[in-house]
From TrEMBL:
Keywords: DNA-binding, Repressor, Transcription, Transcription regulation. Signal peptide: none annotated. One of its GO terms (biological process) is negative regulation of DNA-templated transcription. GO terms for molecular function: DNA binding; DNA-binding transcription factor activity. Residues 2-70 form the HTH gntR-type domain. The keyword Repressor applies. SUPFAM superfamilies: Chorismate lyase-like (SSF64288), Winged helix' DNA-binding domain (SSF46785). CDD domains: WHTH_GntR. This is Trehalose operon repressor. InterPro entries: Bact_HTH_transcr_reg, Chorismate_lyase_/UTRA_dom_sf, TreR, Tscrpt_reg_HTH_GntR, UTRA, WH-like_DNA-bd_sf, WH_DNA-bd_sf. It comes from Amphibacillus marinus.
Amino acid sequence: MKNKYVLIYQELAEQIEDGDWQVDQYLPSENELKDTYQTSRETIRKALNLLSQNGYIQKVRGKGSVVIERNKFDFPVSGLVSFKELAEKLDQEIQTVVHELSLISPNRHMQKQLQINDQEQVWQVTRIRDFSGERVILDKDYLIARVVPTLTEQICQDSIYAYLEGELNLTISFAKKEITVEEPTVEDKALLDLTGFQNIVVIKNYVYLDNAELFQYTESRHRPDRFRFVDFARRHH
């Protein structure tokens, strides 16, 4: 026999899928649901947690549980592709806004990330990805200027990788990736639409050329409700 919280989750999920609860509509409070289902508040919390984990609702501090869009996009974890290449596969209106493009002297943190000294210069590129009017990804790229001597806003608007491979004839080979869940920074909150979200998913990329030279460090900061990070694994015998 299923636990009561699972049954409540299934009933609420079915109601959301049937349109009884619309996107951006708040579910009844925990107390109201407790009375409706004649159960404990802890049971209701478990049911709501399942709804949140499965992408039906987002818990908003001080307001309750709001029904959200379930059209999450699959982002491959193991692949090394440009955002433009991914965007072309998505049935969405997607825009890239170049917020910053500058040539900087790297601080100690960036020297460590790119394994360089303070004599090197680095391109700093900050881009906002807008999905159907919502700013949901903040991409922060750092590229060694010795390897990439020129960058323009137009290149960054279109595709940096297309420029590197097509114009500079560089061969991008592999990347090391780290995935973390973090609290949004002041910059995240200023540049992304994060109202009601207390966490973001950060994918850090260390990207190498075919001669095993590290030339790029990237932080791709995602609002968690719109993306599902996927991979394919095979067991070797």
